[in-house]
Write a structure and sequence with these properties.
single chain, 194 residues, 434 Repressor (Amino-terminal Domain), 2 domains, rod-shaped
């Protein structure tokens, strides 16, 4: 029996219409309809609210409370997309933040995507700020260290930029591994900027 079928059965047993259940739970009628038709996977918060209104526990809704079990493939795919869109910085520097933000905003009603996506985007914003500062400060530091304003033998700015690109690539690969392993705790260690 699916979650939708179980919810429909419990709702009818308790004498609720879809409209009344939606009002009591503080959810939209459309949300109740989608859950009952199994056209969307309800979030854990939504299921807890419905269980509370119906005066049943989550086990009666036949729901696993394990956060990994509630993560659908679409959530993981969306997080992978946000992560890999950060690779756009190699071609179009400004779009590597705009594209992930657009994807995140489209799916941010999902708690997992909202939290993890904000953390990944925050890292990219911080990386961009630090990289730009390092590129602009490198000639100044070079001048202070060598005492000469003439460019040195080594092209230091490309080397600095390449160093920061490698850090970003490492971060993207690390995030991919964490997403693949459902290791959300490590991914949200960076406080979100927005």
């Amino acid at each position: 029996m699916t979650i939708g079928e179980k919810l429909k059965e419990l709702r009818r047993t308790k004498g609720f219409s879809q409209e009344l259940l939606a009002d009591e739970a503080g959810l939209s009628l459309r949300t109740i309809q989608r859950i009952e038709k199994n056209s969307s996977s309800p979030r854990l918060y939504t299921l807890k609210t419905l269980a509370e209104v119906l005066q049943v526990n989550l086990e009666q809704l036949n729901v696993q409370t394990n956060i990994e079990a509630s993560n659908s493939n679409s959530e993981v795919d969306t997080l992978r997309l946000i992560n890999f869109c950060s690779l756009v910085f190699l071609i179009l520097p400004i779009f590597y933040i705009l594209i992930p933000i657009f994807i995140w905003r489209k799916h941010r009603q999902n708690k997992l995507i909202n939290k993890v996506g904000r953390s990944m985007i925050s890292f990219q914003v911080i990386w961009m700020i630090i990289t730009v500062m390092a590129i602009f400060l490198t000639p100044l530091m070079s001048m202070l260290i060598t005492g000469s304003s003439a460019p040195g033998q080594l092209p230091i700015i490309p080397i600095v930029y390449l160093f920061f690109v490698m850090i970003n690539l490492f971060s993207i690969i690390r995030n991919y591994n964490w997403i693949h392993q459902n290791n959300w705790k490590d991914m949200t260690s960076l406080p979100p900027l927005f």
